[in-house]
Amino acid sequence: MTELILADLLYMTGLGMSMVFLSLQSRLSRRTTALIFAGTGLVLMALQIILTHAFGVDLVVRRYSLIVHLPSFLVAFLLSRYRGWRMLYQFLSAVLFCFFIQHIGGIVFYASRQRAWVLWTVLLILTPVSLWLLHRYLCPLVSRVLDELQRGWALICMSLIGYGLIVLYVFPGYVGIDWITTVIKPMFSLLMVGFYCVLILLFTSVRREAEAHSHTQLMELSLSALQSRMEAVRTVEEAVRIERHDLRHRFRAIAKLVAQGKNQEALAFIGAAQTQLEERKPSHWCRPPVLDAVLSSYFDQAKAQGIQVEARIALPDPLPVDEGELAMVLANALENAIHACQPLPPGERQISCKVIARPSLMIEIKNPVAGKVEFDSQGLPAVTGGGHGLGTRSMAAFCQKHGFLCHFEAKDGWFRLRLLQ
Q1: Helices 179-259/289-304 angle, 10° precision
Q2: Most Cβ neighbours (<10 Å): which of 20, 142, 155, 198?
Q3: Quick one: 210 and 290 in the same domain?
């Protein structure tokens, strides 16, 4: 029985490390994170084998939290993008799932009169199903909710901690060995799974509310940009109507100059009229109407505040992502750039916006900044009261959703945002 319990502990260690890896929002690349977790898991397994041969499997079971949970938590803490209760929630969720799988296997093991092959069959069936559900549904849902849900994480974590203490220390036996432990521990696990199902409903509600809010913002942005575009078009139409009315007077003046032999003056007069018409021609930045309206709206805002705008826009057709979502990203980035330029002297205000479609879609927006830009633990500009950095989390969520690389940089007095597909 000692070998079976040890094998089960080793299996749960590997499973637990895999679940924490899937749940964790790491600061490093997925490959580096996977290598670190794999190495940590192997070290912890080796430690359990050594302690079992030296002191017996009972000590490993009683001190499992200190031997496995604590080191793996520290590794996850060092790698996680989040801190505090949110990070602890991600770790405790993996612990809960491991306990639940272990308890189901223990019940079947006990019911089969402790046949080892039955236990391993159940574990080998539950493991891929659990990992698939975690990777396919739960992790994407939680990753969206972590930034949206601002309160309640401490209460959720305290509930999970209380469950862990009961399972590990109030009833320290091993499920599948004796009858009392085999009944009581799975009961608490079922209660916690029910509690977790309620959490999933809460997370789903929060995600839908966030999506609805984002959709409302997008509609407001699109409407505002299109209204601004319509006003600009109306202004140009009125100017063209006036120019058309004055056209006959211009023809008379040109005819008079030609009749007097003043050809150079006539050409200069025609050139001035053409320049005046060109200046009143509305600017078109791209073919998609919402994006064109958003770019025109924010570029006009920048120019109205004395900000020099340099723009080169080459968007692919068709767009690789939703037009409205991309418009929201550009609106947030340009709004931040405008806010950052406002404290600068008029001669130093400028925004550069470049969008290229080959070999892949890349967006770069840069602007000078006054002072130092601070970055948080996730590499995002720290949000200040009404200043630079607003909307960056929305951009980061867009990049995570569509597989873009997002990079913020402040160097030599310039702030740069780069998005690369």
Answers
A1: 70
A2: 20
A3: no
